[in-house]
């Protein structure tokens, strides 16, 4: 099984990178991509836990925003971790997450929800990328909500009055940076409308012109109709169609390996990288 989109405690997952590797081995995953939000800080630990029968694809899920304010997530895989431009973009995105969090907390406080930045930061593991799931965990700790699912459905979703966007490069800029760093770019869950506004089918024209390699077609947040449309778009543009779990661990329904990528599509995607950077022991 090939799962090309997972998260660890280095961003908003609950398993450490090492624990994630062990779970992948236990679930008979053969190819696993570690794609924490806007960071590569978990790569070394994941590699240290790697065992035979599992190929590790190192990457990151990079936060983007279109010119008209639509949030887009781009999976960058197999890129050079020493590429300075891409690392600067990731660092700037992470830094801006703190200002965004402070503004969300301020709005919650004004509405009578007593939560502080220090309580949110207490939910982060060392080196983790700050995100709304950490605020959700702090709200759970305070007894304000019972679960991450409740926190997002009631308070933290993209249409909430407490929502605040943050700095992100455009998807086209991000794709070009991933490609310049020798990697491949796959747009994550592009039609996941429950997360907020989504891009239109027409947007793929500019993404492909920037160098897009693939579309995450099979994902929990896509309906069957949306998957069929995305598969058609991928075929029309000659893009790779992937399937992924978007696994986060406890507190999110996504199961490791619940959606997967075919071997043929994976081999096509890997061939588009500048170098063979899959890690195996």
Main features:
alpha/beta, 10 helices, 15% strand, globular
Order of helices and strands: EHEHEEHHHHHEHEHEH
Query: Helicity, in percent?
Result: 25-40%
- Pairing-aware structural class of the strands and helices? alpha/beta
Question: Can you tell me the residue ranges where pLDDT is under 50 for at least 5 consecutive residues?
Answer: none
Largest sheet: 7 strands, mixed
Beta strand count: 7
Q: Kindly identify the CATH topology of the domain at 92-156.
A: DNA polymerase, domain 1
Q: Which CATH architecture of the domain at 92-156 is right?
A: Orthogonal Bundle
- Terminal CA distance: 18 Å
The order of strands across the largest sheet is 1-2-3-4-5-6-7
Beta-strand content bin? 5-15%
The coarse overall form would be globular
Radius of gyration, whole Å: 18 Å
- Average pLDDT metric: 94
CATH class of the domain at 92-156: Mainly Alpha
Number of helices: 10
Describe what is shown at a glance.
This protein is an alpha/beta fold. The protein has 10 helices and 7 strands.
Can you characterise this structure?
The chain is an alpha/beta fold and 281 residues long. 38% of the residues lie in helices and 15% in strands. It has helices at 17-26, 43-49, 84-110, 117-121, 132-141, 148-156, 171-180, 204-210, 224-237, 263-270, and strands at residues 2-6, 31-34, 55-65, 71-77, 184-188, 214-218, 240-243. The chain has a 7-stranded mixed sheet. Helix 1 links the parallel strand 1 and strand 2. Helix 1 packs across helix 2 and helix 7 (171-180) packs parallel to helix 8 (204-210).
